[in-house]
Each structure stands twice: as structure tokens, then as C-alpha cells.
């Protein structure tokens, strides 16, 4: 089963994902405004997850299978 996540080593907080899909992405709590994928994003089909990954200008949105290393 695929999952979508934001690689915080790559995220530059551009806000593209949060602005385009606020029901699927948000900023985490804490000192850094890094994006996180919300639980609703995990229920999407892989094809839609891959479309969402294209929103990120630095390719920080990652789609992977559950068995892939994080």
C-alpha cells in the first residue's frame, strides 16, 4: 500500500502543497514551518499521490510503498 510523506531534509516550506491542498497538507507544530501530509492523504490512490508530489518545487513530497525505508 502506498503512502505519501514530506521529506523534511528537502522541504523548504514553500507552501505550495498547503496552499493547493489544505485538506491534505499542513504545517507541523514547532519552530520550523515544515509541511506534513495529513491522514486524509494516505487514503488516496497512488496515482493521485504522485500528482500531489508534483506540487512541490523541490520534490520533497515522496510517494513510497509501506515496505520502503523512510
Automatic annotation (TrEMBL):
<keyword id="KW-0408">Iron</keyword>
<dbReference type="Pfam" id="PF13370">
    <property type="entry name" value="Fer4_13"/>
</dbReference>
<dbReference type="GO" id="GO:0005506">
    <property type="term" value="F:iron ion binding"/>
</dbReference>
<dbReference type="GO" id="GO:0009055">
    <property type="term" value="F:electron transfer activity"/>
</dbReference>
<keyword id="KW-0411">Iron-sulfur</keyword>
<keyword id="KW-0479">Metal-binding</keyword>
<protein>
    <recommendedName>
        <fullName>Ferredoxin</fullName>
    </recommendedName>
</protein>
<comment type="function">
    <text>Ferredoxins are iron-sulfur proteins that transfer electrons in a wide variety of metabolic reactions.</text>
</comment>
<keyword id="KW-0813">Transport</keyword>
<dbReference type="InterPro" id="IPR001080">
    <property type="entry name" value="3Fe4S_ferredoxin"/>
</dbReference>
<keyword id="KW-0249">Electron transport</keyword>
<dbReference type="GO" id="GO:0051536">
    <property type="term" value="F:iron-sulfur cluster binding"/>
</dbReference>
Amino acid at each position: 500500500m502506498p503512502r505519501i510523506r514530506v521529506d523534511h531534509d528537502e522541504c523548504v516550506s514553500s507552501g505550495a502543497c498547503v496552499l493547493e491542498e489544505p485538506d491534505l497538507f499542513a504545517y507541523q507544530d514547532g519552530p520550523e514551518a515544515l509541511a506534513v501530509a495529513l491522514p486524509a492523504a494516505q487514503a488516496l490512490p497512488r496515482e493521485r499521490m504522485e500528482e500531489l508530489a508534483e506540487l512541490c518545487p523541490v520534490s520533497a513530497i515522496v510517494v513510497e510503498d509501506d515496505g520502503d525505508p523512510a
